[in-house]
Structure formats: structure tokens, C-alpha cells
Sequence to fold (292 residues):
Amino acid sequence: MPCISADGKPTTSGMATLKSLKDGPLTPEEIAGKTGQPLFKVRSGLRELKNAGFVEEATDKFVLSKNGSNLIQ
Amino acid sequence: MTLLLNEENQFPVLGNQAPEFEAQTTHGTLHLSDYKGTWLILFSHPADFTPVCTTEFIAFAEIYEELKKRNVELLGLSVDSVSSHIAWMRNCEEKMGVKIPFPIIADLNKEVAKKYGMIHPEQSKTETVRCVFIIDPESKIRAMLYYPLTTGRNMNEIIRLVDALQTSDKHNVATPANWKPGDPVVVPAPKTSEEAEERLKEGYDCKDWYLCKKKLPES
Fold:
């Protein structure tokens, strides 16, 4: 998986996505712009990070969950 | 909408929505909808660790940067496992010195292959033929190429096809035979006799009222 490793922790690209959200909610397009990752990879990564409980989706934007915030502290 | 080839195989139609899928790839689980907003070249090859496919994969990797400049992503597919794909990609890097930067679908159950008519039993009952689907940012199928197992694809033609489609979209024109960027384009045929008359005064290079070309402004 691109954003979550087999042990359930975010990979390097997953951490980059989480860190991009530390200042507030972003769209996948904005995350792609901020991290330099291709849009398709950001979207698939956000799906995994959401399933793993690290981000939450609010309308078109994604925001760090409590677990996600704790992880990047 | 797709045409049904037989009970198992569908055949996509130009201009229609590309069939959605969820697939295991070398970059994790990907959906077609993950590519919304970018152009996508979905292409299949018969099998990993085969000679023609290896030359094609290296060639696709070599045009990847050119494609990215055009907002195009690449996504490969074959009826092999993720482990096989990873081993082959590593082999390409170790033996040929070329890193494969794009994901490859591991379509072991042929789910995606059947949606896109990639299995042609007269060629092979188990392997996908050499298909190329050019899918636009709205997920519509804009062009399809089907090559037999024996024949590797031409990367210059694939780039040319992308350039032609994007030029047609941007300028509402068509492109003539053997067109390449910078060449004159074809002005769409007139729909009324009044338009046919008027276009002769537009300063186009017209062979006749129905065949007019013009140069596009430098971009």
C-alpha cells in the first residue's frame, strides 16, 4: 500500500500527506500541489489513511483526525 | 456503456465513460476515478519477463516525463501478480538501467481486462493483447489501440496521439494524416452552405470549401 505499511503505520508518502494537513483541511489537489505527489497517488493514499483512521473527510476536503494529529506531533 | 463481445468480454466505445475499476497495483489499490482531472494511458501487456514487453516497458518509462508535461499518467496491466511485477521492475532497473516509475495492475482474475476487451482468444486465451486506452480528465475513452502479441507499440505515435487529442480539445479543430505539433490543422467542415461560403473569405488555406487548414498560434 502506498500510504500505510503492513504494520499499520503511515509510509513516507503517507507521512508527507499527513504533514501537509497540519495547517488545516485541504483538497486532494491542494495536497498534491503541496507534496509534489501525483494526484492519483494522493487520492489512493487518502483512502487508505482514512480507512486507517488518520484523516477524516469533510465535504471535498481532508483533515487530520486525532490519531493523525498525534502522529505528526 | 460498452459493447459485449461475449459473456465475459466487454469492448469499450470511443467517447463513452471508461469502465470504473478497483485494482491491486504496484502502487497499492487504485481506482480509475483516482485519475479524474488528469489524462490517463491505460495499457496492457501479455506477460512479465517476456522480451517484447520488456522493450515496451522501457520505452514507456522513457516517455513518462514527456507525458507528465502533458498532464498524462501511465498505468500498466497484465495478468500477473504484484510480486511478479515488482520482480520484473527490479530486473528492468538492474539489467537495463531503467526505473519503471508508473504503477502496474496485477489483474490475476482478469476483472479489468474483461471490462476493456483486452483478452482476444485468437491471440491468447490467458494473456492480454497490447492495448492502449487514452482516457481524458473526465474519464472518457478518447482513443484505443490494439496490437497483437508479436508487435511492440510505437511511443512516438502514442505521444502524437495525445498531442492531437489535446490540440483538438483546446482549439476545436481536427488533425490531418501524419500531423505533428506545429503543422497546420483542419478546420471542422462547415455545416451550412452559408458557412461554406464564408470560410473561403477567412484566409484559411483551402483546397476546396470542405478541406481548409490553418496554422495555430504559437503556444
